[in-house]
Every structure is written in C-alpha cells, then in structure tokens.
Amino acid sequence: MSFTRQLSEMSASELNDAIDDTNFPQAHILSRGRNNSVCSTSSISGTSSLADRQQNQTEEATAIAGTPVEEVAPAPALVPVAGNQRPRLILKTNGSSPDSDGTQPKTPMTPRTSTTPGSGHEKCTFHHDLELDHKPPTREALLPDMARSYRLLLGGLGENPDRQGLIKTPERAAKAMLYFTKGYDQSLEDVLNGAVFDEDHDEMVVVKDIEMFSMCEHHLVPFYGKVSIGYLPCNKILGLSKLARIVEIFSRRLQVQERLTKQIAVAVTQAVQPAGVAVVVEGVHMCMVMRGVQKINSKTVTSTMLGVFRDDPKTREEFLNLVNSK
Predict the structure, then answer these.
(1) Is residue 57 annotated as a catalytic residue, yes or no?
(2) Partner of 312 for a Cys bridge, out of 27, 58, 203, 258, CB 3.0 to 4.6 A?
(3) What does the alpha-carbon distance between residue 134 and residue 131 come to, in Å, rounded to a whole number?
C-alpha cells in the first residue's frame, strides 16, 4: 500500500498514534549551533543514537534472561541506520512501516476478485467484474453516473432538470466535484518528482500563507484558508514549490481540518526526514458560515508540531513568530 494512500485512510487520532516522536532528535540533548548540528545524534558528543541505546538495552535484558542476543528480534519502533543518519519516522499501521524507496508491495485494503464464472479471473486479486481487462476505470469514466446522480438531486429539490439553465448542470457539477477531489489521484512520490536535494543546511525553512481549498466531508461544502509549513533540514531540503503541492494533495479531498494538518506534517517528514516539522492551518468553514450557527467571522486554527518543534519551546516560538509576522 502506498504511503499516500495510508495517510488518506487514517483519522486524525490514528495519525497522532502513528507518529513515533522517538525518531526525531530530542531538543534537550541538541543545540542548533554551527558546531553542533541539530541533526547530530552520534555518540561523539557524549550521547548515543536512539537506535543504539535501544539495541543496547535489548542486549542487556537478553543477557540477563540467558537468551542468545542474536536470537532477539530487533525492536520495531526504529529502523536501523548507518553512520550519523537519523532513524526514520515509522507509521505504526498493521504492524508494518512504509518504505520511502517504493519497494514495499502495494496491496489494497480489501482485495477484490471477479465473480463472473468462466472469466479466467476468479482468483485474480485487485479486480472485479468491471475491470476484467486489468485496466481500472479512470475517474472521468465515472462522469455519466455522477451526472445522473446530480440530475436526480435536482429533481429531488423540486427543480426541472430539463429547463434551459439546468440542462448541462449535472455534467458541470460532476466535473467540478472531480476537480475538487483530484487529490485522490495524486501521490506523494509523483508530486515530489525527485525534488529532494542534498544540502548542508540546518536552519529553519518556512513557507507561509499557502492558499488552501478543500471540501468538508460532513456537509460537502467548501472550507478554505492558508497553510504555513516550517521544517529543520537534516542535510536534505525540499523544492519550495513541493510544499505547496503537498498541501494540494491532501486538501483536494474530502477532509476535516484537523486531519489535513497532520497529513501535511507527516508527508513532509516522510519526504526529507527533517529534525522537526511544524504546520499551522487557518481555515474558514462554509458549514459554519452558510448554515448552522452562521458565524461569518469565525476562523479555525489547527497546528501540528513534530520533533524539535514539539520539544523545544524556543524553536516553536521562532516558527510562530515568523508565521505571524507581516
């Protein structure tokens, strides 16, 4: 299963549980000075890496129990790394972790098989009766059915779908909905397109006021606003436009703002494995403006702080000051 698909199927609470903060350098043992990079977790400075400490603890416990060390399975919370590289963020879903190199087998949540006798595809997973040619239908192929649904909706509202102003409305509405939810057709790997660069830079990178448009999954009405993203690189930087494209991937889906904020933060972490990521989203929800309480001046602000941004108040304050400055 692709990493991006996993994120799209996780609730905000599941995303929160999936984040293992031990994979980030801890602020209390690090400083951001020139001579002591925030990315350093080696034992040279007097502190061993998180992976090494966990392995030593496992070996000590095993020695006491009298079990050979080599028979003990490595702890699943951290991925072993070489040299001074940081352990990678792990999503604890179904006992497996996604691999950023794309070598993980991509298996759907619920394998589908054909039910047509004699089709030769009875045992073929990933397919059902409409996909016997092994070519899943494109989203555009769904337009006729969606247009018919919108036509029924217009009729249910008491309108005449055949009057001049509404003849082509069902098709237009179907195309618009596909555009509003085009993020389902995009993956993190495709959007990054190799725009991750090796760079000896460990100071904060912030891109703020990224315009965001999304659809509330509770009422199917829009919410919009702006997103600010900051991260502390660990010898890898991301093309600046890719941060805006990551926002597009997850905002162009049926969403709630809380989950959207976490998805963006986890995606940036997966992309460049920084020392920390911070995301702040400010949104205006039409479900509060046009209906319900109808509070037209209300705004919703959500944030996700990972790694150093969560552990170090000074780093977090620096980011928030940059975001709020005009």
Answers:
(1) no
(2) 27
(3) 5
